[in-house]
Design a protein that fits this description.
Layout: E1 2-6, E2 16-22, E3 29-30, E4 35-40, E5 45-49, E6 54-59, E7 66-68, E8 72-77, H1 114-120, H2 131-147, H3 150-159, H4 177-184, H5 192-197, H6 207-222, E9 225-233, H7 235-252, H8 259-272, E10 278-281, E11 284-287, E12 293-295, E13 297-299, E14 302-304, E15 307-308, H9 316-331, H10 337-340, E16 345-349, E17 368-372, E18 375-382, E19 385-399, H11 405-420, H12 423-427
Helix pairs in contact: 8-9, 8-11
Length: 429
């Protein structure tokens, strides 16, 4: 009995995928529900399991093929599997006396005669330093000490260079370090990538990278993008984390990070400025009264933006747990379509890579995205005195078709106030 392997339903608005790679070969024995082929879609990669236990008898869609939902990928037949691993009969070697080489112990081969080897190697004549060479050597040493820099002197001595034959490019013909390097032909080696791939390399963009490029370009073309900036003093948050980190981790099994504070601060601001949590559909504005916060995660295959659902209903611990779990799924390539859908607002943390400032691009159809950056000690004026404080620059990119300048600035200012005094988050003010 044979079972067909078909392309499964891929989720909302996704009708085709690319066969990324087959995890099994034709003739391989497989178990039921064992992943046998990996598909790449516009949003996520997914593994297609075997419907039955048996043998992979046919691969219909090779690696790189574009397939639609319901298309035939291959087939699996029931059975114990091919006997590829049959026990190999051990062959006992037979001895043929006619093929044996009889050696006379008294007539050893020359190659093993150490005395003969030593005799064949001519002795090197002792090096005799003539008076002429001695005089030249003295002159060179004299020149080295009088005219050459320590670095040049070292190279001349170590490499036994005749300084008289070197044309110097320095003042009055003085020999420089670069002159000696050029003379010896010492050039930096090519990069490892150049050695491995040549002068250029050309690879096809993955479907995920193609989708990222398309959506970012759409955001630039379709939205009226504008960015406003502010800065936040992270002192209070850092002190709160330091004071409560151990107790928090012992109780909830996860570290108290910065993201939970930012998610909470954003949710409070979104409730006060609903336009930032809205989207345009045709000639209508859809105001969303739920708060699904998307957050950008960098992976080996590209940037993905999973969603933290119902963020307004989550505690600090719940937020940290969910972010950790979703981030691990993203890095392992195990995100589902559901993990990427339904976001209403996005937080992008370029600070983890050392970014000081950026202008994040909208994650359509959302109307706002907050950019976090690295924390740097900077001088600030507090009550007329200069203080050194840990400062983070914030950037809010927004769709000016929905959000006015007053709303965007006030929204970002509220986030700043809630972060600089995190007690406000607990008091809901």
């Amino acid at each position: 009995m044979s079972e067909k392997i078909l392309v499964p339903a891929l989720g909302e608005s996704i009708t085709e995928a690319t066969v990324s790679k087959w995890l099994k070969n034709e003739g391989d024995k497989i178990d039921a529900d064992e992943p046998i082929v990996e598909l790449e879609t516009d949003k996520v990669n997914l593994e297609v399991p075997s419907p039955i236990s048996g043998v992979l008898t046919k691969i219909n869609s090779k690696d790189g093929a574009v397939v639609e939902v319901g298309a035939l990928l291959g087939s699996v037949s029931e059975g114990p599997g091919s006997q590829k691993n049959e026990e190999i009969k051990k062959i006992q070697p037979t001895v043929n006396n006619d093929n044996l080489v009889k050696l006379d112990a008294k007539k050893e081969l020359d190659v093993f005669d150490e005395k003969k080897i030593e005799e064949k190697q001519p002795e090197e004549a002792p090096l005799v330093l003539t008076n002429e060479i001695k005089e030249d050597s003295q002159e060179i040493n004299s020149d080295i000490h009088e005219n050459l820099s320590p670095a040049v002197r070292k190279i001349v001595t170590e490499n036994k260079i005749d300084i008289k034959s070197v044309k110097g490019s320095g003042k009055d013909g003085r020999v420089l370090k670069g002159d000696l390097i050029n003379l010896m032909g010492v050039n930096p080696p090519p990069s490892e990538r150049k050695i491995k791939f040549g002068q250029e390399e050309r690879i096809k963009m993955t479907r995920l990278r193609q989708t990222i490029a398309k959506r970012l370009k759409q955001a630039q073309e379709n939205a009226a993008l504008l960015t406003t900036f502010n800065e936040v003093d992270m002192t209070s948050i850092m002190e709160m984390r330091k004071e409560n980190q151990e107790d928090f981790q012992n109780r909830y099994g996860v570290k108290l990070g910065f993201m939970s504070f930012f998610v909470k601060a954003c949710v409070v601001a979104l409730k006060n400025f609903p336009a930032v949590n809205a989207e345009i559909e045709g000639d209508e504005i859809i105001y969303k009264n739920y708060y699904n916060v998307s957050f950008a995660v960098g992976t080996e295959k590209g940037l993905v933006v999973p969603v933290l659902k119902s963020a307004d209903e989550l505690s600090f611990a719940d937020i940290e747990k969910n972010i950790k779990q979703i981030s691990e799924k993203a890095k392992d390539g195990k995100l589902t379509i559901e993990d990427l859908q339904g976001g209403t607002f996005t937080i992008s943390n370029g600070g983890v890579y050392g970014s000081m400032l950026s202008t994040p691009i909208l994650n359509l159809p959302q109307s706002g995205v907050l950019g976090m950056h690295n924390i740097v000690d900077r001088p600030v004026v507090i009550n007329g005195e200069i203080k050194i404080r840990p400062i983070m620059y914030l950037a809010l990119s927004y769709d000016h078709r929905i959000i006015d300048g007053k709303e965007s600035v006030s929204f970002l200012k509220m986030i700043k106030e809630n972060l600089e005094d995190p007690r406000r988050l607990f008091l809901d003010i």
